[in-house]
Prior knowledge:
This protein is of the alpha/beta class.
Amino acid sequence: MCVKQIFCSNNEEYKMGNSYAGQLKTTRFEEVLHNSIEASLRSNTLVPRPVFSQLYLEAEHQLVSNFEACKRSGNEEEEEEEEEEDDGSESSSPLVHYQMKAPPEGCCTTDGFCQAGKDLRLVSISNEQIELPSGFLLVGAKSPNLPEHLLVCAVDKRFLPDDNGRNALLGFSGNCVGCGEKGFRYFTEFSNHINLKLTTQPKKQKHLKCYLVKNAQGSLTKGPLICWKGTEGRTQQSGSSSTSSVPSQPPESPASSTTVSSAESIAGTNQSMSTGFQQAGSPADQALARAAPGVSVTHNNRESSRHQNAMKVNNVPTQNMSRPSVIGNLANSGPPKKRHRGWSPDSPSAAETSSIQSNPPPQNSGNKTEHVEMTCMTQSSHLGPAPSPLTASEEPVVVPDNLLKICGTRPVIFKGHGSFPYLCGNLNDVVVSPLLQNCYGNTQSLPRVYEQHCTSVTMVMSVEMQILLTVYYLVQLEPDQVPLIEDLEHVLVRAWQEPNLTETKHYQQAVSQLGPYVSSQALVVTPSQLTWLAKLAASSCKDVVKIIDWTNSLAEGLTETFKLLGEGQLQGKNFVVIICTTKNQSTESCVVVTGKRQAGFLAGRMLGPKEHLKEINYQLVTGKIGALGTFFSNLCPDGDLDTLLEKCSLVENDQGSGFIASLKKFDDASVQRPTICSATISNKETCQIHPMQLAVARKLLSHVCAIADSSTQNLDLGSFEKVDFLILVPPSEVAYQQTVLRVKRSGILVELGLEAESVADQCAEHYVMKLTAEAQSKFEAFQQRVLNSPYTLFILIHDHAHWDLMSGGAVPRSEPFLGVADRIVNCREMKEALNVLTLQVTSFPFAFQTQQTYISPYNEIHWPSSWNNRVDLYQENNKYFGLSDFIDSTYSGHRLPLLRYDSSFEAMVNAVQERFPTIHRAVIWTYILIQHYSAAMMVTAGHSQMKNYSSVETLEIIQSLINSARSCPSSHSYMVLLRIPSVSLAALAYERLCQVRCRLGLQYRFEIILGTPNAKITIDQHFLTQLKGWQRIEDPDWAPQTYLDLEDLPCILILSGTDHYGESFPRSAKYYDLRLINSTCLLRTALEQELGLAACYIVPDATGQTGTLNDLSESDLDKPGSTDDDEDSVAIEGKSDNTKQMSIHEIKHSEKQRINIGQINTNNKSSRRTSKTISSDSSSTQTPIIGQISSQCPKAKAASQPPTVFLPKLVYEIVTKVDNAGVAKLSSFLPHHSVQWITPFHPSLAKMMTSTEQSLYYRQWTAAKQNHMDFNKVQSRTEMFHPRRLLLNGPPQVGKTGAYLQFLNILSRMLIRLMEVDVYDEEEINLTKEHPVSQQEESLLWPDLETFSKLLFDYTVHDPKYEDASPVYSRDLANDKGYIANKKDDDIYLRRHTTRIRLSKYAAYNTYHHCEQCHEYMGFNPRCQPYDSTLHAFTFSCSMLGEEVQLHFIIPKSKEHNFIFSQPGGQLESMRLPLVTDKNSDCIKSPVFTPTTGRHEHGLFNLYHAMDGASHLHVLVIKEYEMAVYKKYWPNHIMLVLPSIFNTSGVGAAHFLIKELSYHNLELERNRQEELGTKPQDVWPFIIIADDSCVMWYSLNTEIPKNSTSVPAEQKLVERNVSLKHVLQHIEATTQIPHYALCGIRKWSSRVSSPHLTEPFSRCHLHDFLMLNVDLTQNVQYNQNRFTCDDVDFNLRVHSAGLLICRFNRFSVMKKQIAIGGHRTFLIKSKVPNVPMSISPSQYICAPDSKHTFLAAPAQLLLEKYLQQTSNNLFPLSVRNYSHPVLSVDCYLNLGQEITVCFVSSRPHSLNINCSDLAFSGLLLYLCDSFVTASILKKFHFLKGATLCVICQDRSSLRQTVVRLELEDEWQFRLRDEFQTANSQEDKPLFFLTGRHI
């Protein structure tokens, strides 16, 4: 076995000793023993091969074969080839294991259940009614994995035997009673289905055990056994020819199980270990069977336990006591009559000596005998049962007196296997721990745990193997190394995993090679082998492990151990392993830890942090440490240390020392020195957000948006108007003030609009709360704000969240501040409030990542890495230096490591602990560190004789602290952070160090600050003045509130408290002395939290590398050096009985020699600096202070150099150690004291695991303890995760506070952004300079029909979106010569002017809006099925298309009341229309039609708020190919689906079909309501056609200001937002409304001009939002072919028909800018696929029959785009010729903004412009119908050279049009002037012909 791979990381080879405790004289045996153990230690196989397997393996296998032969010798029948039980007899050849067929993917594989997941266990379904087919019986099947259960099966009785064991048909036929599957014809197939999981060939005779019958209560119970053929014969024979291995037992003491004898008792090497055998039919056996009829026997060594009250062997009546021969009887050497399936021709004979079997239990009346066979096994039993109480035969173990005094420590006894004896006597001197017993016990759960994770299990680790692995682990420990239970667990799980994972592989290899396969279960350790192997291993470990083997009991072994301890024979022994190998019982063991360091450490680990503090306080209060103080005071060579300090104080007062005088002079100068250092900065920091913090804030925002976008509706961001917050911090005054200061400097209160800028700093404390019992009032105020502000999103930030995980119900009365976080974060009001989002911030997320966590893994935000593939992703100026960087510094051989431990300090600690074993180790450590600091200060003050009483590290700290101020003009210096967890010890250290400092006259050189959690920072006035001067603070009342305020102050900060509370430290902190942290509390959170204190940001140098070298320029000629000599020795010599002096080995070095970094030799992974004391060659007293002062300021150095951290040696080794897989050992510890592993034998973390993978790992393998705040989730069985809880995880001191404050900022901006939209804000175009006199009263609310009819129609288009369109000719345009057109590109969406407007309560929304009010409207109400809608066809005839048109309506169930359906078949007949006379204030009469394409997400179709809740009918008009996606996003909207032929059509087709459908529906409604007595003209004829980007509506009114004094009063324009309901109801209320053809409103603009007031109504063009009278406009149709300008074309034709178009100028519609969808869905591209090419407008047309690249676009679109872009070439005389426009008959086409179009209608009685005196520059004929004749055209005059353009559907109609209109009389044509759009023939191109006027 390779110990290096499993147990340790040492690089030394283990050398085995030449002798051990055994007495076997045989040379062969001794050689085999040594070779075996050495080979085992060096081999790569996990399971060590026992030495006995080399000497006796063949004989043992032969012996087992003899047993098998004897068992068969009495029976010659063929049926004896079958095994009776799962532990079937072993043959001499290995069994060929049965390989089950892999179960189907996804099926159930749980024992006791079928593959369909149905329970088959008798106890579960005994009361269920099971239907059986005729001829079937219910039988019970045994599963080897569930020996206590019977599985219910239905089997055809023809395949079962009768009562005589005969007449059973061969084969099988059965059914599954669970899932009902029938027709299993093979028992192999059936066994796979019911998950028997067999390792041998399935046979019905072996696994079908008994019949199942119903009892009197009707429940299924176990019935008679199935009498398979030959069972009774074998039973009777075994009863007469075998002996029993079961010892007798009193009937009144029930046994949990029986134990069989192991192989070594038969082949044994000691006569005293022979086992007695009892006759099978003896009365003792029968009594045992009667007393324990349900006794379980060992099957295949899978379960075995010792008797609770085992009797001695001598008291057992025995027969046949003769021990079989090892070689066995080879009388019958032939093969069996019928070859066993495990027998091979090459194997030895199976006929051997007699077998050992147990007798059958007595038969029950009426039942057949259930035969249970027990075979002799070659390995002992596994882990036994729980320890039993002391029996009468066991004597208690007396703990001797004065054991602590004798040993120098309290021995720690680890319970192991078996029953631990009762201890009495001096129990205070021993510690009993169950950790090892629990570790062993957990091995039993390994198979179950790993089977739950789909891992096959083939074996269980035996007791002997566990003990041997424990011994191997202990022997590889260094003499001063402490054992860790985590390491042993890792050893055991690896030892268990490797054979199980390789078992199948070895078997397959053996089968493929047709060789014998030996299961790894055969290579086990027997009890006798265990003793020899353990002693041999112990002989090779420098005698630190002692093996005591005892054959009687553990009690005698413990008694012997105490005796050896008393006699002093265990000196140097760290561990005593007691092994008890009693016959007929399981092996028992325990471990006694006698090493002083090891026992002290293990005893300390049994105490929690609170128990440690209680013990420390108790010793301090009771005065038990008095002797320790006296000892340290007398260490001084000149007598009492206080006396020496008193002398120093007198010298200082008398100014008798030149050194003290120089110090005083320097101090006085430093106070008066002006602050001229360039590094001095102001206290007011600028709030700067770093790129990394901004990236994290954006990640937080994206997770919040993901919650809002989910379908769970747990967060409705659209309903919130602002953001509020509350930050929870631990109960530390410094942490609280630090967070408040950051809130102030961030300006977040002003950004969020929570406070005014003038009072923001004073109100910042209201938003930060300490988690104390007194904080309840502040939280209640926050709760009240939550309840009163439903439209405010509250962010509850739990900072440093891992600190208080205590459940609110498990808080002790002594600590009321604990559990406050649980009572706040997990209170019902906070969890259920829909406007509260909880953010938990921590550096250690694994405290929350348990199986009971409230936080979804998708809601975890991990701090990103700034580097990826050596690329700086965020371009940070500073580099974060964290734990991994500190560890990396220990690997570099050419630099001083930043992570170190003090070997001199550790040596002194060990020596003092041996002298004072009863004093708590933390007290001793603190006293020693105080001694080191005191001595270092004395050395600095000139007392060089004190060098021997401090360490190199401590001298370095003090010298750097005191001397660095001299290198800076402003006296900037460093901070030293001294961590002392105990508040009492910290106060003691503070008092002592202040006393020493003052007596040495150093009180003005550096400050000593005591940092306690609940206290403010207090410093001396001298240093306060310095800080104010450096930071330029003039406030006389200013005092430092955070540790960051102590920047550059020379000080020692003693940080106390059990935990760190998240305080940040200045960059001037150069040393972090963590030598006193609790090294026994090995938790990942605790260790990483302590190490995280030193994390910081540093400035990389020019090469990008961080400065990791110590500031060597500060060292003078006398600065301590360091070597790798490991010859430190610490001794305590006695001066007298009460005083001792410590003598430390010294290393002398030259004072003029500087440290050569190249000579510092660091080992492979060790960065240990061996501390040496210093002596000077000079006998004179001289100052060791630096002689040469660097001119560089310490402040500048600190910015680029990380600090140095000193750790305890144990913690250092844990932090820097990695296993063979490269995983840090630190990650293997328990994450937090409030969580637990679900099993100690969990897999290890992988080396390259990401933060997300680690989260999933901890969520799988850890669970919350009962005192954890998440434990209540299990009890309440709430939802799986809380939907509104996030976890932000980042390294310590990385900037998480700034990140979440920035998150609040951008979240608020996003909410404002959600409430704001970009809308078009453009003034109307083409306005005349002179306004006509108003013909209407300004106060009119509705138009007067008579007056309005007299108004002239305004042909000019004023909508700014048509700025690049052709102007419509009018007299006003011709007279306005100042109009100049500016050429614009087609993509005007990016160039149009927009502005941001906050959405009002009357806005229309897209699909991203969610609120409670409109859930039902949107179809998201739980009572409304979202997809419960039906599809209806609606057919009508269309004269324009010349055929019937079939449209489809998608009508939700909730909207069916708006339609009429035929009663018999439910066919759609019509859409309901109201009457003109209807009066309903809560209803909109006009149906709203919204054509849309490509905007299923962004279209503003949610009109609930816009309509102010009014009832209305809204229909979305969509294309057929978009039906599914629109239906998905708008499930509760009515949809009108256009026919598929219009999939490529433009908006004109949608408008055309809407109008045609509406008119046809109007006729249907008139006919329907006429039958009800309603006049046809009373049916409401209007519909609304609205664009999908209309967002809000406004009303413009005039008001007279209240303070106006002018006469007449000046009116003021007031524009207010109104609902769409208000607008529509106002228009619908117009008198004589049926006489208006079109009604609409203007486009909104922020620049409102007065003409809109003078003319409240206009006859002009309407766009985007209009109310259409489908009755009056019956004969005026939209052009279904148009893509652009169809509304202008329709308006001109409606006016020419003499119909009224009215625009309500007091109302306006605001249009949102939507950059996707709409006309942008039409892309012009080549029809040739995968050929990228740029297409210019000139390529939109081509000559007919030419070889031209065809385009994949509609012909109409190509024509319109071509005319818009190139009409300047087509109509050259018309460019900017406003007096001579182009005549366009019956249509309006956009010819570009430089060409004017004059629209003329050819319809009879149409209204047209007077053109009698007008000469046109061109003629445009577009798809002329029969109304256009030659006579009409001859009425118009054209300029010479004017251009004619005739457009037709095909070339034939083009020629016919030319002939019909007699165009050749006045126009000249050429063949080359004929063109077509660039479409193929199947796309039906348009053709046009151009000509010139003659």
